[in-house]
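note to self: the first set is below, dont mix up w the second
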Amino acid sequence: MVQAHVKGDRMGDYTVVNLMEVEDQAPGFGLAPNLEARFAREALGLQTSGLSYQRLAPNFRMPFGHTHGEQEEVYVILEGSARMALDDEVIELSRWDAVRVPRETARSFEAGPDGVAFLAFGAPRTPETEGADARPIPGWWPDE
């Protein structure tokens, strides 16, 4: 269970959550140990956006790409390096690179030789029902 510190009063409110305490969703999709995926919007009580922490093992390529119906996303590389496929282009990313991706652009990641860890921010917040906004593309990578 996530331990959240929530403050709410007339002076303002906030929520503090350690992302490593948010449940890793990757095992439930058969993607562990190559992928760690912690989706924190519920734990943080986000009203208008989403946040996830993801870590890919060295040289692991996500087995799918995706687009969104509404969400624009920003990805920030925290550790390691990656190749990121964006529609028909593949770009190289390293620590502290930030990439904005519009909703309709197909995207996917492949970790570099040391793996990669990144944060993904998305807005606006969309419905919780599966497939409501994210549109997975199984087996997608533009150079294959």
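second set (the one i keep forgetting abt)
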Amino acid sequence: MRKLALLLFFAVMAVPAFAAKRVTVAQLEQTLTAIHGKTDAEVARKIYELELSERLSSAKLAQWQKEFSGSEARQALVALADQSAFFDPPPSENPTTAAPDADGQRQLLQQAEQRVAETLSKLPNFFAERKINLFEDTPAQETPASLTPLYVGYQPLH
């Protein structure tokens, strides 16, 4: 019993050692700058040890993928970005402009309405017409004796 309790204690203590380190996008950028000269496998291993707390933008991901030419590092970056897809973006990437007031919203809607009216008149006027050709291959057959005897001979596609 004592051995089981000791084994359980060490197992519980080891769990945090395998947990990924949560970092922001800025901290990830610093980490990538620090490990830039290392091998592809080392870079990938270091990236797999991290977990983002913010959403990684596709522009930054593309930039970092250009910097690391190894396939393992690129895959690790994509996996890290995919894991962070549902997080909020970093505060630096949030828009700084406030939402428009009621007059501004009305003006935007009027501009959109005007744009639609201008665009619809320039669109081509297409008409679609459907023609269906049916072909039938009639095999030779004989009607049952209970009905009026009729023999229909073979007719090719018609």
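remember for set 2: The first helix runs from residue 2 to 14.
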